Amino acid sequence: MGGPGNPPEGTPEGGPGGGEDEYRSVVFDESFVRAARIQEFSAQERLTDHGPAVRSRPPLRRGFSRQALILILLIALAFGTAIYMGVRHPYEAPAAKPAEPLRMTVIPLAPQTAVPGAEDPEKLFAHSPAAQFRIGAEGITMPATRRTEHFTDSQVVTSLTIAKEYLVASALDPQVLGGSTVQPVRRLVDSQQLDQFEQSFDRPTADGRHAPTGWLVRFDPSRAELADPKVRVQGTLQAAEYDSGTLEVVAAHTFVYALRPASGDDTEASLFTVRRELHFRFDQDDLRTRQAEVVVAYVQAGPLACADDATNHLRPLLAGQTDKEGGPAGTDPYATGGATALCGSLAQSAQPKV
């Protein structure tokens, strides 16, 4: 009898009766079964409970893996700890080493004869020891530099640069020289020395701590003014470690100014010489803020009268003037030796030959 049965060798490949091929596109893998929202009761459960044929399954839990969850918890814990430590135990920077007060000595040099003068300042310079000096900031030359044990080459260069800026501001700025401002110098002074700096100008005192002429060069505006803005300069800068946390720069320079009486009359000019030796110190904060601790200022200046107070302003003796009192010995501001008295005599070799 013919019937719908399958041939003995099975359904031909690709034929319509291929049940397995018919559902090949539907894959009932394990994840598909687990994800089903409805589950059919087993035959035994249906006979026992006489309930519905199917039941709803609880939703499949989806979310982060255990490793991801642990990582998130660790990050949250670290963040919370950082906030707690920041509030309960704020970082306190180590206290900065206190800056030393500036120790200063200003030595007036009195002329032994009348101060030489000339109508042309260039003639005075040409016949003086300053004939070969450079003009202005060009006379403050930077030395060859190299790193130290605790400071890099760039830090050494920075310390020398700040020292040069201080010299330019305190001895070459026309407004500072004329006594109309101190701000170009003040901004370069270490913040811990500002009280001493300001007291020096508010209440000048010849106590070796509070003389404006120890911080900068300025002339009494009622006495003298620049006859030539081209100040002659020569000197040296040297940098070395003071200790493991401090650089020290020693600046030794001679500045020569051409001056006239402040009256404005067409009178002769004369030369005024200032030799300054300044010791600067720089810690890491000073290098960062571009400020300096000025710890030593040794100044010789003339021609000045020994009787005049050189604490607040320098009051130069001008062309044709002399100081009858004088000093104990001739002191040459072009020499590198130290002063031997509170007032010295200006050596004849330091004066222009006119």
Low-confidence sequence ranges: 89-94
Mean pLDDT: 83
Shape verdict:
rod-shaped
For the biggest β-sheet, the strand order reads 4-5-6-7-8-3-10-9
- Class from helix and strand fractions: alpha/beta
Notable features of this structure?
11 helices; 354 residues; two-stranded antiparallel ribbon; 8-stranded mixed beta sheet; alpha/beta; rod-shaped
Structural write-up:
The protein has helices at residues 19-22, 30-35, 43-49, 66-88, 121-126, 153-171, 174-177, 183-186, 194-202, 212-215, 284-289; strands at 38-40, 54-56, 103-111, 134-135, 224-243, 246-261, 270-282, 293-302, 330-331, 344-346. The strands form two sheets. Strands 4-5-6-7-8-3-10-9 form an eight-stranded mixed sheet. A two-stranded antiparallel sheet has the order 1-2. The protein is rod-shaped and about 140 Å long. The protein is built from eleven helices and ten strands. The protein is 26% helix and 23% strand. A hairpin with an 8-residue loop joins strand 6 and strand 7 (270-282). By secondary structure, it is α/β, with parallel strands linked by helices.
Summed up:
With 354 residues, the protein is of the alpha/beta class.
Helices and strands, with pairings:
Elements (H helix, E strand, L loop, with lengths): L18 H4 L7 H6 L2 E3 L2 H7 L4 E3 L9 H23 L14 E9 L9 H6 L7 E2 L17 H19 L2 H4 L5 H4 L7 H9 L9 H4 L8 E20 L2 E16 L8 E13 L1 H6 L3 E10 L27 E2 L12 E3 L8
Parallel strand pairs: 3-8, 3-10, 9-10
Antiparallel strand pairs: 1-2, 4-5, 5-6, 6-7, 7-8
